[in-house]
Amino acid sequence: MSTSPLRPAQADAPPPPRPTVRLHLWLEEDGEMVFGMGRAMLLLAIDEHGSLKKAAEALGMSYRAAWGKLKQTETALGLRLVEKAGSNREGYRLTTTGREAMDRFRAWFATVERCAVESAATVLPWPVRQFEDKVPDGK
Questions:
Q1: How many CA atoms lie within 13 A of 106 on its CB side?
Q2: How far is it, in rounded angstroms, from Cα 61 to Cα 91?
Q3: Maximum Cα–Cα distance across the chain
Q4: Which of 45, 67, 100, 109 could anchor a disulfide with 55, C-beta 3.0 to 4.6 Å?
Q5: Model-level pTM?
Q6: Cβ burial 99-112 (10 Å sphere, 16+ → b, else e)
Q7: 71 vs 82: CA distance, rounded Å
Q8: What is the pLDDT of residues 34-53, one digit of tens each?
């Protein structure tokens, strides 16, 4: 399969597009969400903030939505992902299992994304980049 441009480049032509590969990747069972990047980001935010309320606020969701997503995932997996850090005022922390689930999902996602970018390089007629390649100037 050829990876040449769709049309010949002219000397004064703008550079070819370099779109970003974006993936929606999740695990489900019987049509119900089990785990995805949103759940991984919720766990990361809980880890960073030590609070489900602050994590939900940081992600732009309600406490109720965050709690529901967390409980749905724990029930589906049969695992505890977070635990109280002490009293109610002390917030939450990830369990060892929660940290492992978050870290492994994020690593798997990065691997799948790299594979998608590499595959695109052999199939598509223009270069693509991974999402994090866009970070330095926000473009």
A1: 14
A2: 17
A3: 67
A4: 45
A5: 0.78
A6: bebbeebeeebeee
A7: 10
A8: 999 999 999 999 999 999 99
